[in-house]
Amino acid sequence: MDLIQTLTSNYMKPELPEMNVGDTVRVTIRVKEGARERNQAFEGTIIARKHGGINETITVRRISYGVGCEKVFPVHSPSIVSVETIRRGKVRRAKLYYLRDRVGKAAKVKAKIN
User: Fold this and answer.
1) N or C: which end of the chain has fewer CB within 10 A?
2) How many CA atoms lie within 13 A of 99 on its CB side?
3) Strand ranges (DSSP E) for the chain?
4) What CA–CA distance (Å, rounded) separates 10 from 81?
5) Angle at 30 between CA 27 and CA 28, to 5 degrees
6) Count of CB atoms within 10 A of residue 51's CB?
7) Does residue 112 sit within a domain?
């Protein structure tokens, strides 16, 4: 087991921002189109965090032109340039799948005031 941990620790990102379920984040990913490469941002609310270690993923949801769009990002992937926490969310659940059924103001997450 220690062998697996030592091998995967080389590929994990050492500096990750503090991010939890309910936070609004901006994930910048490196997109390759043919010979060109560019950075694209995806901003939304984290509705789930799964797994752990090198396999950790976050599911980010946003509403785009009235349609819900979700993406699953591997946190330690080399194609992810950065993850910025824009606003903290106050939630009482580990998974926010109930937001899928809600639209408008009902789909908002309260902001955490420190």
Assistant:
1) C
2) 27
3) 24-33, 36-50, 57-64, 67-74, 80-87
4) 17
5) 15
6) 10
7) no
* Consecutive H or E run containing 4: helix 2-9
17, part of any domain: yes
Count of domains forming the chain: 1
pLDDT at 32: 96
Residue with tokens 């490469």: 37
Distances in Å between the alpha carbon of 2 and those of 11, 42, 57?
A: 15, 35, 22
pLDDT in tens, 10-50: 999 998 899 999 999 999 999 999 999 999 999 999 999 99
The CATH code of the domain that includes 53 is 2.30.30.790
Residue type, 102: R
Q: And the tokens for 75?
A: 């946190």
Given the structure tokens 């901006």, which residue do they identify? 26
The residue range of the domain holding 74 is 2-107
pLDDT at 114 over 80: no
- Please give the single-letter amino acid code of residue 85: T
Instruction: Decide if 112 contacts 90 (C-beta within 8 A).
Output: yes
